[in-house]
Amino acid sequence: MYREEDNGYLENLWLIEQADSTYTAFLVQYEFTPEDITALNFRQQINVENKITYIELNADELVGDIFGKYYYNGACYEDLWTYQSGTRCRSTKHTFAQGNECDYWGTTDMATNGGYVLLPTLVPCGDGGGGPSNGGNPPDYNPTNPNGNPNHGGGNQGGSTTPVTCKFCPELEPPMDNGDNNSPDQKNCDELNRIGNSTYTASAFNTLNNNLSQNAETGFSLDIRANFPNFAVIPKPPVSYSEVSAGQNPFSFAFLHNHFIGKFEMFGHGDIHTLFRYANNFNPSLLPNYQFDNSLFTIFMTVRDHTYAIKIEDIDKLASIQQYFVDETTEEAFQMQLDRVFKDANRDAYGNRKPNPADADQEELAKAFLKFVSETNDFGIALYKANTNDMLSQNATWQKLSLDTNGNITPTNCN
């Protein structure tokens, strides 16, 4: 909580759901010493006996303000509990659970723990307000493990990724055909055309395109919401000085990011794995009235002039990528293998490797990538390409890229 005048306490607002779906509200004050706060910042346990005060509040109006529907600038919104995944440390090699195995432990570059946050969500104005979504009621509070609790001020600093806090968002768009189309290739194309030409995602793709010179990735996830088939575009936090976290939760079905000038302009090892993780972690039971299939899941990558996408053709084949993410050793070996493929594709007219990834020809990189994911490995994925300027004007034509018998790219237009 924030006060205009500091009272010397750390404070939380607790809302506890009762059996009748109503809520009890408490203001919780933590009388922690500077030493206690330092220990919490380093994820250490402290003795909280006689240091916590609970003040019960009048919950009716308060809960209505927090969980109820509210009207803002011509649209209706509702705050819903959403689980936000933690991120890896700056090196991308360590998770929060690995603790001080990481050299960045105890610094702002350390891995973070996941947690539940309230996110404003666009909802229809015709229905009544509601409580938290079934997708994520916060877990019971455990005072011996403050990092596992939702919204624990002081004890969970950096424990969840930054939520979207704006209440003014553009209109959202339906994300799929509800299973009415039975052609896998056509369904993949339909998803690409719908997302790629969306008035809402155009803003995100424009941001990706504008940030190509920033020497750091920018990224957004597309997440389902309680008012499905609408979706939300969620900015994703950096996981290191140059990379962005795709996150991992049961709501995300697509990831939009860029490869800035200076990186190879083609999907990396983590992008392929993210496609599998999104499909594997998505929870269709959150929305039982809709039919989901693997055409829903997409990883987009914006580079100079073009935006590429990878889609699933065979999820069982894609699942084989897990063997390369067993531990740091297998992941690093897999990353180096794909890096060598791109370096070999980046050669001058005399056959010499060019040192700058920005000098690599995109078509040569695409050839190398297709061979890597379909011949060296068989991951059961497809590669697509569109002109970024056409996407920004919402008039993109996607092409599926395949290799012919001579190893050259054959494009096939999406209808």
Q: What does this protein structure show overall?
A:
- The chain has helices spanning 34-41, 59-67, 184-196, 201-210, 269-281, 315-318, 328-345, 362-376, 388-392, and strands at 10-17, 23-30, 52-57, 70-72, 75-84, 115-123, 219-224, 231-235, 252-258, 298-302, 306-312, 381-387, 399-403, 409-413.
- It has three domains: 1-59, no CATH class; 68-141 and 159-169, no CATH class; 184-413, no CATH class.
- Strand 4 and strand 5 form a beta hairpin.
- It is 23% helix and 22% strand.
- The strands form three sheets. The chain has an eight-stranded mixed β-sheet, with helices on both faces. It has a three-stranded antiparallel β-sheet with strand order 1-2-3.
- Mean pLDDT is 78; it is low at 127-180.
- Helix 7 (328-345) crosses helix 8 (362-376).
- Residues 135-150 have a biased composition (Low complexity).
- Residues 128-188 are annotated as: Disordered.
Number of structurally distinct domains = 3
* First-last Cα distance: 52 Å
User: In what order do the strands lie side by side in the largest sheet?
Assistant: 8-7-9-10-11-12-13-14
Average pLDDT, rounded to a whole number, is: 78
Which structural category do the helix and sheet elements fall into? Answer: alpha+beta
- Sheet of most strands: 8 strands, mixed
Discrete helix count: 9
Helix fraction by DSSP (H/I, runs of at least 4): 10-25%
Sheet-strand content, in percent, reads 15-25%
Order of helices and strands: EEHEHEEEHHEEEHEEHHHEHEE
Tally the beta strands.
14
Q: Tell me, briefly, the overall form.
A: globular
Can you tell me the residue ranges where pLDDT is under 50 for at least 5 consecutive residues?
127-180
For this structure, the quaternary state is single chain
Compute the CA-based radius of gyration.
23 Å
